[in-house]
Amino acid sequence: MAVAAEQLDAVFGALADPTRRAILARLRRGEATVGELAAPFRVSQPAISRHLKVLEHAGLISRTQRATARLSHLRAEPLHEATVWLAGYREFWEESYERLDELLASMREREKDEEEDKGRPRARGRSHRKGRRTP
Fold it and tell me: Apex CA 76: angle with CA 75 and CA 82, to 5°?
């Protein structure tokens, strides 16, 4: 289980950086060189290479050599594992939202009842003084 926890830590650590998330988004379209991945950013190729090492360590990409180019490829399996882990919390939030919906419905019903009560004429009964009826 420790390996899975370390893997999950590495995935979430890699995803914490917007540049790395953008690199993953680009790799969804297909393999790319460091130069292609660096093009949209105002950072050096060595900086992109460091980001790629983090992504590779997390298992989110693989890298291969083709002639003189080093290509990066998306590996989505660790993202699936992270999604499965997050899904465990989805049930918690859905139950919380259901309880909130029930509370809001109850409050709306109470408000509706109070508004209806305001529009009803008061029941005639005895006043507190000398046995007189209220008008």
Answer: 130
Q: Which residues contact 91 (CB under 8 A, 6 or more apart)?
A: none
Report pLDDT for 1: 46
Is 2-78 in CATH node 1.10.10.10?
A: yes
Token pair, residue 1, equals: 């289980």
The amino acid at residue 49 is: S
Q: By the 8 A CB rule, do 58 and 23 touch? A: no
First CA to last CA distance, the chain: 78
pLDDT band for 131, please (50, 70, 90 cuts).
low
Q: What SS3 class is residue 52?
A: helix
